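Page 42, continued from yesterday. The earlier attempt failed because a stray header line got pasted into the input along with the sequence. Redoing it now with the clean sequence only.
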Amino acid sequence: MIASAKLTSKFQMTIPAAVRRLLGIEAGDVVILTVEEGEVILRAAKGGWTESSRGLGADVWKRAGGGVAAVERERDSWE
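This time it went through. Structure tokens are written below.
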């Protein structure tokens, strides 16, 4: 689906009705915006922030060689 929205002078926008219906979001619901490779992705935060953000940083950890490798590199930098 492709939809458009116009920013107001306060940088606010209305999510088009078709998108709201597809995501199952209503007034007062929380949405999460992420930027991936120059594109904004809007996700419904059903189940709260923790549940809906699961896995969002996975690519960062993969590039770092995994969590253990990243922690080891950080510890090595202390010396």
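Notes: The first strand starts at residue 31 and ends at 36.
Reminder to self: strip header lines before submitting.
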